[in-house]
Amino acid sequence: MRVLPVGEHALLLEADTGEEAAAWHAELLRRREAGTLPPVREIVPAARTVLLDGLDGPDAVRRLAAGLAGLRPQTAPGPARAAVEIPVRYDGPDLAEVARMWGVAPGEVAAVHSAVEFRVAFCGFAPGFGYLAGLPERYGVPRRATPRASVPAGAVALAGTWTGVYPRPSPGGWQLIGTTDTVLWDTARTPAALLSPGVRVRFVPVVPVAPVAPEPAG
Amino acid sequence: MSAAGPDGAREAEVEVVRAGALTTVQDLGRPGHAHLGVPRSGALDEPAHRLANRLVGNRAHAATLETTLTGCAVRVRRAVTVAVTGAPSPVTVGGRPAAWGAAVHVPAGAVVEVGRAAAGLRAYLAFAGGIEVEPVLGSRATDLLSGLGPPPLADGAVLPVGAPHGRPADADTAVWRGPARELVLPVALGPRDDWFTAAALHTLATGRFTVSPAGNRIGLRTHGPALERARGGELPSEGMVLGAVQVPPDGRPVVFLADHPTTGGYPVVGVVPARALAAAAQAVPGTPVRFVPFRPRTAAVRHPVVPDGTRPPGGYGG
């Protein structure tokens, strides 16, 4: 783990893996809860890092950095909570292309994808848009060469090994494999975001599919 | 909750007569939600927003109108005290000249107009009681990146104004340092200055940059020499802060302003302290920009510490 300076009020913890970053994120949330973290405005996890922003000033940043340098995060990324279930119709316009890249039949994409338990690694791009980790490396797919000008709300999409669900209509370059009616983001409810970092997620096909092994050989 | 008088009616409303090029409702934004992908948003020239509120007796978090270059005009349906700060602009009430940078009484039915900025870019129009549109996540600010908060003003729109709850300040000073002939932006290097060549960091310090017209509330964009990367490859998305100087593939630095994305995958060469961002918010396109990189006092946090100042190996190259 490295600690990098970010201006005079923030620092960035950089881990070697996404799992280690998640463990650090959980550790920092626990410390904030326990009152053993100096006041920060934001704790922002991302792919390999956790940003701590809104510290009092350079001295607070230095002290915290020194304190963190000798620490090891607990490995368990937070207490186990029931996974959020998101019903999905696997009917996206890129389903066939994703199936081709995965080397499976189009009808099998749902089975592979819905067998995975995902974890929200971080949010970004739009309020309530979670980057969901969990797909094995071999199911990684590139972004589309040409992004779509408009992706509908509820589109379930892949890029790299990430899965995301578009909370509202927006331009987007991810591969669309399905659609959900679940509302990802609603500022009229509390919490507004269905998915926040650390939350576990399962996608449930609305049309039942024949069960297959979660990670087919090959 | 909107303010209501004894008869249950709204205290006041304003009707947009001329929305201007881009006028938005702004306050101190919605910090604390970055982990959900929610930008902080809020007034770009925060000192000017705060001063406008002080002048009309509001607390700092009351919502004001932030105009862009061409001002705006609104008709008030009830007498109200207003103040205009930020970019020095002609102010009229009912067609007659009124003071900039001071509390001004506007009678019921009159139009208060902020004209085209004589210098700078963004003016702030505060109403005693504040603009009281429904808050979203604790803020009334328009966030142009994510679409949270009220839409930008449109001609004919009607905005509620709350009940005045403080005495207008009768002795405060509107400070305007004059139009910046040159925008000087200190840059605390890091976290990804090691993604750039030594020549690029020299270019950052010495290059002739100007404010690009492509800038907006998300970021101040620059024209000028490109900063060359020391390594290829992609940076996994990481958290972004206000004032981050992000360098996209074209090499031209972008300084993140209030509506910046919460995460991003282009390397951040350094961070402009928030105190310098009000000037950035007022810099018109074409203004020369001088970046002044410095090693922040927090730089000792970099691990492992390399005594000769060269960068440790590793990272995401390749």
Task: Give your account of this protein's structure.
The complex is a heterodimer of chains A (218) and B (318). Chain A is built from four helices and 13 strands. With 218 residues, chain A is an alpha+beta fold. Chain A folds into two domains: 2-69, Gyrase A, domain 2 (2-Layer Sandwich), CATH 3.30.1360.40; 84-205, Cyclophilin (Beta Barrel), CATH 2.40.100.10. Chain A has a four-stranded antiparallel sheet with strand order 1-2-4-3, covered by helices on one side. Chain A has a four-stranded mixed sheet with strand order 5-13-6-7. Chain A has a three-stranded antiparallel sheet with strand order 10-9-12. In chain A, β6 and β7 form a beta hairpin. Chain A is elongated, with a radius of gyration of 19 Å. Chain A starts with a strand and ends in a 13-residue tail after the last strand. The mean pLDDT of chain A is 92. With 318 residues, chain B is mostly beta strands. In chain B, β16 and β17 form a beta hairpin. Chain B is 8% helix and 26% strand. Residues 1-9 and 301-318 of chain B have low confidence and may be disordered. Chain B has a seven-stranded mixed beta barrel with strand order 12-19-16-17-14-13-20. A six-stranded antiparallel sheet of chain B has the order 7-6-9-4-1-11, with no helix packed on it. A five-stranded antiparallel sheet of chain B has the order 2-3-10-5-8, covered by helices on one side. Chain B folds into two domains: 12-161, no CATH class; 183-301, Cyclophilin-like (Cyclophilin), CATH 2.40.100. Chain B is built from three helices and 20 strands. The chains are: A alpha+beta (218), B mainly beta (318). At the A-B interface, β1, β2, β3, β4 and α2 of A face β15, β18 and β19 of B.
